[in-house]
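Hey all, quick one. A colleague (J.T.) asked me to put the adenosine-5'-triphosphate job into the tracker so the inputs and the structure tokens live in one place instead of scattered across chat threads. No bug as far as I know, just bookkeeping. Sequence used:
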Amino acid sequence: MSDARNGGSFRFVLIDGDELARVKIKQHLLSSGFRVIGETEDQKAGIRLIRGLHPDVIIMEIGADAGATLDVVRRLREELPTMGLILLSRDASPELILGSVRAGAHEFLTIPIDLTELDRAVERLRKMMAHMQTAQGRRGRTLAVYQTKGGVGSSSVATNLALSLLAEPERRVGLVDFNLQVGDLALMLDIEPEHTFARGIEDGTIDEAKLQTMLARHRSGLRLLTITDRPEESDLILRNHIPELFGLLNTMFDYVVVDVNRHLDERTLELLDLADTILLISTLDIPTIRNARRYVDLFERLEIPKERIRLIVNRFQEGTSITIRDLENTVGTEVFWSLPNEFRPMRAAIDSGNPVLLDSPRSRLARSYRELGAALCERPSEENGTPPNQDSLQSMQTSG
Ligand SMILES: Nc1ncnc2c1ncn2[C@@H]1O[C@H](COP(=O)(O)OP(=O)(O)OP(=O)(O)O)[C@@H](O)[C@H]1O
Ligand SMILES: [Mg+2]
């Protein structure tokens, strides 16, 4: 179902009392490049999941009490008007189909589920939601920058990439310092955040007005959210804050770039799971390459689709004994981009307190950051997961 793959960033929640049916649907969606961010057999638990995760599409079985399910559908439709809703039922009586449509369901499928019918329903939803998004302003995208090893340059990539995305004047870009100990992006941007997320959510609630006050403003227009600047406050951040926080950020920004803390606890995993794209930063040395392989394997075990991962080489230099091909062979993934090793503009940037993109905009490194930003915004290749073609890959690598 290649067409449906264009909606590859669709995030589903499944609510179905029949475990076998749930597994069958889930596997089918995953193999079609979609994401299943939550599943449950129980309707009440399902409603909590939906409120927390804000999925794009819900697939829900109509239970023994059809009236109660339709009441739930009506309530969800009011709360989350842009969400797609597919109902499943054994009873395909005209009354129930009509009742479902009136309650606000988009699609009605009979059990046992025919997967071709499901594909068609998802494809119809994809088209309808694409229209709605154009009309209402679309959901932003989360780009998580993840380091394979300390010091490979992930904070530099996150900061300069976020700045490069501002090339489009209308674009709203947020940068998140997701270091759960002490972040250093504020320092890189030479700003002093007054607020952090950890202190802002002390009372347990998040809303847009509150989040606005936590965002520091950089003169470029970039907004920075520091998760915490005090290691002792790290425990205030809970796993269930993450989908809520990023759900909200994605309504406020077109792109949310995240410098991710390498320590893999449940909060970081939650973030990696919801990210639209993971930029895995590596350098060309044996220990780092080995780690890159470990993380790609881990992502596979976590069922994070390969299409969402972009392998990036930082500090690339011609003529080193370890090549991009070695990295690709070890990791089993193509390199999406390589950024040149450029000591001088980096040093000048650190001294001036201005990222390279602003301090040395003509440097090769700044150019490569800008081109990386543009390549990541090319929606077709990002959404259907096809890597850049050979020509463009070559030009990227020589530009890098
Ligand atoms: N492309 C590059 N060319 C030259 N130097 C670079 C490049 N990218 C990063 N550096 C340098 O590498 C060092 C580490 O960079 P950075 O702080 O961005 O990495 P990090 O992965 O975030 O590190 P940490 O593990 O400390 O968070 C810095 O001194 C930075 O200036
Ligand atoms: Mg860092």
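Adding what we noticed when we looked at it: The chain has two domains: 2-136, 141-399. Residues 147, 150-156, 314-315, 339, 341-343, 346, 350, 365 surround adenosine-5'-triphosphate (ligand 1) (CB under 6 Å).
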